[in-house]
Amino acid sequence: MAHVSAAERRPQLIKAAIDLMTREGIAAGSTRAIAAELGVAQATVHYTFGTKEDLYRAVMKQLTEELVAQVERVAPADAGFEETVAALAAALWRTVRETPASHQLLTELTMFALRTPHLREALESHYREITKVTTKLVAEAADRTGHALAHPAEAIARYFLAGFDGLTMQHLSLPDQAAEVTGLQVLVSTIVALADGRLQLVAVPTS
């Protein structure tokens, strides 16, 4: 059998882990099961990644890169600010509708990472990257259309992501297409109103 280097085996194992855990959940993602998914020895996983946590970190990085690529790919280059936000929300929502298992896996990995110190850095990196690219798209859309933002682009991006995460969890837990369409419309309208300054912020005591 021809020798396969660790550099070649790495993306194969990441894909095998994603395929397995997307189907069966993160609890099924043992190194033994992931190795069996690819048809290699369990030792190959440890030789390539060291630990299961290292493999999970690579999986989170891969999922993050794919999500960022999706976001950047759908951003319109010549639409107005409101149309840009709506297009971004619609494109992201299609990924939730078409591949809910992938979003469920990312949610499971997030919860797992919160309780796993070795994965905390990967989780923080995931949210930093998603926030960064969303902030960039909001700022670019505002600059391109001459839209003066009433609040920092990062604050608007964070609100958008928080709302989208909530809608995603609702879809995974209790799907309701009509309610979800309305929820998405409300989210986009709220984001635009926040950016315009028509939505006033209310001071909330935090201590």
From TrEMBL:
Signal peptide (UniProt feature, chain positions): none
Any Pfam family: TetR_N
DNA-binding region: 30-49
Keywords assigned by UniProt, alphabetized: DNA-binding, Transcription, Transcription regulation
Stretches assigned to the HTH tetR-type domain: 7-67
Gene3D superfamilies listed in its UniProt record: Homeodomain-like, Tetracycline Repressor, domain 2
Protein name: TetR/AcrR family transcriptional regulator
Lineage, opening ranks: Bacteria, Bacillati, Actinomycetota, Actinomycetes, Kitasatosporales
